[in-house]
Queue: 2 jobs
Job 1
Amino acid sequence: MSWPHVKIGAVATINPRLPKDIDPMQEVSFLGMASVSEEGQLLNEEPRILADVKKGFTYFERGDVLLAKITPCFENGKCLRSGKISREIGFGSTEFHVVRVDEGKLDAKYLFYMVWSDRFRFFGEKSMSGAAGQKRVSADFLRDYEIPLPHLKEQQRIATILDKADAIRRKRQQAIALADEFLRAVFLDMFGDVGGDGWAVETIESIAKNEKGSIRTGPFGSQLLHSEFVDSGISVLGIDNAVDNRFRWGKSRFITREKYEQLSRYTVHPGDVLITIMGTCGRCAVVPENVPTAINTKHLCCITLDEEKALPEFLHSYYLYHPMARSYLSKTTKGAIMDGLNMGIIKDMPFPLVPLDLQVAFVAVKEKVSSLMGGLSESSTEDAELLGALGQNAFSDRL
């Protein structure tokens, strides 16, 4: 017997209101958009006084489901079960929707996996409205979205199975993180003391290839419309290709060969360094040698290097690991809703002119570690695909 389907709004409250009789001086947990990962995890929180965040931020309580509503955070899966926040009440970015379940009808974990699913994100993306770069999923879409609703015990059984599959995936990611920490330690041991080693400090712009457009973002506005994407053709790279701080294939986006001829100045080359500058900004990846013909979106800054001055994998590690780079970024990123980067910030980032032979020596170590991480990443991708398949089966009454 198939399960009944109900609208989320019939079994949950969307964006509940803050109670009037609440203590304004109590401590609450504050979450920015950067506090929530695309993996559905709480990355950090900070204490705030309720009176200071009562206006201008989004109220929620422990156990509510938070869902990013703005592009590209929504498509990237920024979603959270807030059960692990340290305080009963929380506030966060205005770019979160909050869903509070009717506990007698709907399990919060079950709902989390439902709205974190590829299917939900697919239809949510289709429903988005607003100006380019600021599109959002509406509360009405969330309220009217229909979900299968087995009885509570069955919801909890499904959520437990998905929790176990997700735990396996996260353990694999922890192993990847350990390998990355080892690489960070090697890098800092070799290059952490810029002043002590006497290397001159220039800028990222000074190590880019001496040609027009060697540091560039992708096409803006009417240059490339969403309606111009097709099922096959020339690849278009976006945030998902760099969000893990290593290049990987994510969502398929293509344009025609004819459209590419108009946008060929945005071509991405093997060895280019990609930096995300919108949404989940500040991530970095190196384009692999076997990349097919492709361009990048406006969400990425693409850097073509003068490899007699800097190697792509060295710049990648410098950007991610070095205190000078991290300090510069923390001081210069800007944006009211979420941190933002732009080409000017990236061009002006300080860069130590490390001798090329030392860069080569580090990259050799990095390639060995990356080979191990690559195997782990493949397994992690398989884990994610398994989790997605389990979720699809679960919500189709086949688990």
Job 2
Amino acid sequence: MNVALTLADGVLQGSPQAAARLISLLESRSDDAVPALRALHRHTGRAHVVGVTGPPGAGKSTLVNALIRVLRAQGRRVGVVAVDPTSPFTGGAILGDRIRMQDHSTDSGVFVRSMATRGRLGGLAPATAGAVAVLDAYGCDVIFIETVGAGQAEVDIAGTADTVVLVTVPWLGDSVQTLKAGIMEIGDVFVVNKADRGEADKAAAEIEMMLGLAPDRGAWRPAVLRAVASEGRGVEEILQALERHRASLIEHGLLMARRQARRRREIIEIIEERFLARISAGRMDELATRVARGELDPYTAAEELMAAGAGG
């Protein structure tokens, strides 16, 4: 049997080793993983995929760690895809998130995987969507995707998660204004973490005010909560908000709409990746040189590449 299909069988049987090996295969961007993803697809769609984003230092990993603790007490299986910055030396992930989640390292009901961004913008790694599919088929009830913490441009998570949690802290000054142009617009649940250090009420009020000025988001009014994740305070309320949001999505037929948009994006990314793989680097460089010399315009060059790719 194909190695990838063997791994897919292992994932469905609940093997963490098979899940880890398959995700590694996905990270290598190898087509060898495709048969496994095809086999697993019909077993996906059951997990609640929760994105956790926000500025660096807001305590995203600590909050996820606290959420896992409560979920495990409820008997639920949890997966985590923690996206870390790419190491400038090895090209791999700087495993800060996994280190902060060592509390669950021996728990068979928790699967934590760190990934490097590999230069990708938007806060996610290239293999994030595939890893989520693997953990969904593996049997996780809730899958957290913790983004790298890139700032207001980090909005890719909105197209990857069912529910987006935006974590901030009270003392970042004009942090709400900094974030509002992008990331503030995608949050379904807002958490003012480290709320024991003062000005938490002010930060929450600023978020509430900004949400009041934002365009109407239909049936769901984003929740604004306070927490001290390091002490587990406010965690139960956050989980309740996540459940209410999921229920609201289902009730109004929006969960399927979000997932359809996610699949559409995945299809486009696959097309782009496979199309570009058909174009030789030499041909690309040749056309770029001609455009730089003024012998050709960029649109004609792109059309030539598209024709070459379509004919490949």
